[in-house]
Sequence to fold (501 residues):
Amino acid sequence: MNNLTILPILIPFAGALLLLLLPRTVRGWMAVGLMAISLAASALLLWTVTTTGEAQVYHVGGWVTDNIPFGITLVGDQLAAFMVLMAQLVLTLGFVYALGCNDQVTTYPTFYPVFLMLTVGLSGAFLTGDLFNLFVFAELLVVSGTILTAIADDRFGTEAAFKYFYMSLLAAAFLLLACGVLYISYGTLNMAQLGVAISAETTPLALIALGLLLATFMAKSATVPFHFWQPDFHAAAPTPVSATLSSVVVKLGIYGFLRLTTLLYVDQAPQIQMVLLVAGVIGIVYGGLAAIGTHNAKRMLAYSTIAQLGFILVGIGWGTPLALAAALVFAFNHALIKAAMLMLAGAIASRAPVKSADFNIITGVGKQFPFMGVLFFIGALGLAGIPPTNGFISKMLLFNSGIVGTEYVSLLIIGVAAILTLIYTIRAFMRVWFVAPATPGKSKKGDLLIAPALLILLVLVLGLWAEPLVALATDTATWLENPSTYIEAVIGNGFVLTEVP
Fold:
């Protein structure tokens, strides 16, 4: 029983309840403080896992008999701890941005408590050890994200929230059906037990569950063909929320794909990887072309997320240890870059005569803010994979894994498609900072730049000093190659498949 595993969930959950009792004037600062503590706990969890080489398992309520968990199990293995640290780092800076944000929604009494509950949902989804509680945490994430979007200042917020909610409702139905099918087949939803059971005998129902789980995680990550809800949703959400939704919340689907191919359905991994490879290549091309053709900076970055996640899917699709390590590095670096870019898009929109990220309105607005232009330019280089940013490290590792794995056809396609990122980011930069304003006049005071500046600093630091992240991702990929480590940490050698109906 290791209490570290529950802290990244418990701290923001307790904080959400506490903030409801505090005066509105101190809620923002208290939320940032709580997130900083939770981030420290996440970092300590990852450090403990990497130094001990053992997953940190917490059986809530102590419901364990003969080393077999019957209740809620939280598992802080190397992958879960890696993803939680990535998510909480970006979320903490999202709260920092909210402190200096001019959106009216940040003054509502429930904004920070609901934002903290979003953190609970995402962190719990990464740390849970069974599929049903993945469903519970994912629904908490959906409800929180829907509320935060529906109350946004943007007049399209309600429409976008409905789209997100109903798309997520479909994904929830898929996941719940998968849970039912697997429970009927194996009598458990614990992922460690399922890993043993499915490997011992894959029933026809288990293959149906695999299809349902694939659809679930594709919807969660806005993977083609389940991508259509994403641009509207992320463009309409409040900036501190959209910055986290489009950078780390969509990584829940990436996490699910990794669990499918390295723990639950190891024998079927080649087929799953082929599906992800095709979806990733299509996503890179489609997302890049759509980003070029859009009229709004936030929508451009939302389509960019579809393309960037495509690169991660390609890495998982290739499936080698080097490719998995590259996918993890790409996921971490993309979270930092995309959050920074969306914050900068929101900051420039807040300084426009009419608050909007529409290019017709923000054209030329950046001329008065050169420092913001420098930040945006560095972020654009990061998205495009140009040195000295961490985006260059991501693409260099991914392309190198493709060369080593002799994946020349898909590598050629994504290599050419990667040029699209440079086209739409630099075009946006030139239009906002170098073209004459569409409506001349003095810009108003906008959102503070502390959070995006810190993120861009990390983009440069991890571009110039990438070794720690690359080493961590390599260790995590090695961990994923040996699912028995996860299984033994949760159930030891005590679980034996006795009957498959």
Notes: The two ends are 33 Å apart (CA to CA). Residues 285-464 form one domain. The chain has a mean pLDDT of 89. The CA atoms of residues 67 and 492 lie 7 Å apart.
